[in-house]
Design a protein that fits this description.
Blueprint lengths: L10 H12 L2 E2 H10 L11 H13 L3 E7 L7 E6 L1 H16 L7 H7 L6 H28 L9 H26 L6 H11 L10
């Protein structure tokens, strides 16, 4: 059995451990609570299979255990899971690490931005416009979520606050880039791209054979 220190953290794993810290429950209830509490906006549980895979991993690590199997006439048998003491300690460890750690993932958008010169300025601007539209819609949705629960303690709305701040910042940046491309302050073409590559790419050093 893996020790808590050897357990690689995961966002969905943290959410599952948090739910089980409240009470033992089966997978169906976990999924419903994740959706009811808006946690599906920060972890992907659209496919219940991903939830099952996460729980199976947590069981293998000794962070979660099977408590019982509930049998009813109206539903298939449901396995009820409970958190272990190792799971409680690991959840705290993961939470501390996730709060202080940055740069652990490689999202697609920064990679695409780094290769923006692969498109023409007009083509790039069109697709950034579409991204701005998507960001605007997501920001409006987040604002609606916050407004829909005015009596909910702020502690349980912090993820939506963060989401709103990040979306607003990205939208402002994307709009600024779009405007710079539109006005010609930011532009490029293939000859210019080749010229820059010739200046900034290091020379091709031939390897000396044995």
């Amino acid at each position: 059995m893996a020790t808590p220190r050897a357990a690689q953290r995961s966002p969905l794993g943290l959410i599952v451990l948090g739910l089980l810290s409240d009470e033992p429950m089966h997978v169906y209830r976990m999924q419903k609570l994740i959706e009811q509490r808006g946690k599906d906006r920060v972890v992907n549980v659209r496919a219940r299979a991903s939830l099952y895979q996460t729980i199976e991993r947590l069981v293998r690590l000794g962070l979660v255990e099977v408590r019982e199997t509930v049998r009813t006439e109206s539903h298939p048998d449901r396995t009820v899971y409970a958190i272990t003491e190792a799971g409680r300690e690991t959840a705290k460890q993961w939470l501390r690490e996730m709060l202080r750690t940055t740069g652990g993932e490689y999202p697609e958008f920064p990679a695409a931005v780094s290769e923006l010169a692969g498109l023409t300025p007009d083509d790039a601007r069109r697709h950034l416009d579409l991204r701005a539209d998507n960001l605007t819609a997501q920001l409006a949705d987040t604002e609606a979520q916050l407004a829909a629960h005015p009596d909910l303690p702020r502690l349980f709305q912090l993820e939506e606050e963060y989401r709103r701040t990040v979306l607003a910042a990205e939208l402002a940046w994307v709009r600024a880039v779009i405007e710079d491309i539109r006005t010609g302050r930011l532009t490029w073409n293939e000859p210019w791209r080749r010229q820059v590559a010739a200046v900034f790419n290091p020379p091709n050093e031939k390897e000396n054979g044995p």
